[in-house]
Structures are given as C-alpha cells and as structure tokens.
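User: Working on a comparison across species. This one is ABC transporter permease from Lacrimispora algidixylanolytica. Can you predict its structure so I can line it up against the others?
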Amino acid sequence: MVKEKKAKTRKKVSYAKWGYIFLIPFFATYTIFSLIPLISTFYNSLFENYRSGLTQIGPNFVGLQNYISIFQSDLLKYFGNTMILWIIGFVPQIIVSLILAVWFADFRMRLKGSTFFKTIIYMPNVIMAASFAMLIFALFSDDGPMNNLLIKAGLSDGPIRFLATVWGTRGLIGLMNFMMWFGNTTILLMAAIMGVDASLFEAASIDGAKSFQIFTKVTMPIIRPIFIYVLVTSMIGGLQMFDVPQVLTNAKGTPDRTSMTLIMFLNNHLYSKNYGMAGALSVILFFITAVLSMFVFIMLTSSGNKKGGRN
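Assistant: Here's the predicted structure for ABC transporter permease from Lacrimispora algidixylanolytica:
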C-alpha cells in the first residue's frame, strides 16, 4: 500500500509552474520593449542633450530644468488642441457606433446584408492614416472636388479655404478620426451587446419597456465595462494623435498652431535632436495619459456602482 501511494504521488504533475513559464515571454517582451525604454526616457529627460549645428551639446545633467522649460512653453495650448480634436472625432463616433451596434445586434430587425455593411464600415480602419489624410487634403483643397461641387450647386460663390480656418482644419481632422475608427468601435460595442442574455430584452419588452428604455436601463448598464474600455482606449489614442494632423497641416499645425498636438510637439524636439526635452515631454505625456485614464475609469465605475446600489 505504501509503495502504491508513493507511485501515485510521483505520477502527479505540478501544473502551477507551467503558468509561470508561459508568462515568461510576455514579461521578457514587456521588460525589453516597454519597461527599459520607459526608465531610459525618464533618465535621459534629466540631461541636456541636443545638437547645435554640427556640435553635440551634452549630455549634461540639468535635473528638472527640461520639465520647467516644457511647462513654460505652449504645452497647455497643445494639450487643449489635442483634447478638442479628440472630442470632435469621438462624440459623433460613439453616437453612430452605438446606434449601428444596436441595429446590427438586434435579431428582431433581421437586417439583410448586415455582414456586408459590417465589412464596409470597418474598411477605413485598415487604411493607412497618412493615405487617408492625403485623400481628404485633395478633396477639400481650394480647387478640389468638394469646392467645385459647392460652387456648381450654387452653395458658394467661390472656393472655401477649409484648411485656412481654425475650425475648418479641426473639423476635417475630427471627420477623419471619426471615419477611421467608428467601424472598430461599432464591432466592439456590437460584440458586447450580443453577449447580453436575450431573455433580459424579452422580459423588458413584456413589462412594457420601450426601445429607448431597454437601451438605457438594460443594454447600457450591462455593456458598461466595454464602454469604459472603448472610452479609455479612444482617449489614449486621442492623446497620441499624430499622423492625421501631421500630414494634413504639413507638420505645422496650421493655422497658428491651433492643430498642433502633443505628439507633434514631441516630434519637433526629436526632429531637432533635442533628446532631453523630448524625454521630458514624453514623461509628462505618460503621466497625463495615466491620470486621465484613471480619472475616467474611476468616475464611470463609481457612478455605475452607485446606480447599482440604488437599485
């Protein structure tokens, strides 16, 4: 009996260690490509390191002087530009995506060709942003097709300089961000809605709830985690906005730097090889992103818990 017990214990395999072994590639990749560069960026932000003509200045330790210089610049203006451009694109994006997600996920409507439309609305997401920006630039230029159409339709006496006005440029950037990402947002929200138990919708309908009441009282509370995920990731993407305004405004943020984003400001320091200032701005952007993401997450989750407690 003792020998049989020993044989059984020997045959037992400890699977706990395999979990840690499978996690090694992730942590190794994260350490090499994320953690070490993050620490290196923070370290380099404490040094004066730039090129003046053919002369390399530094690296010289300057402490927090780079951060002071960044805050004395137009950082707040560029942060405001970035948030405005994100909001202009995100608000219509989330509204349209919610409507489409509800329609596509509602089996009672029996929409024909839904697979085709899902493919069509997702296609702009796979187009390179630079190519899309060049297309919009050509369409809305002074002698482009859009101006020709407005003039021939009698809606304008002359060409409208969309890219020469503040809100014209911001509107086009917001339009591009909306068109590029609303398909991806629709797919995410639709997947969340399809994961809701259909019996909940049927029970609400039997109780006399109308479509809008079902959406606000049943659908939205259940898909709140996915909605928070979409909001936070979209905000992070908005703070990292670069390629669309960079191409559309020829890297100048025209007119009068009202379309200059934080990443465009960072790119200017990298282009001029001012690595100390670029590192300081990167660290500031990291903390801004972290603080805003945590704020949005806490606000939405706490409001959801309060509503859940009242019910």
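For your comparison, note: Residues 30 and 36 are 9 Å apart (CA to CA).

User: Helpful, thanks.
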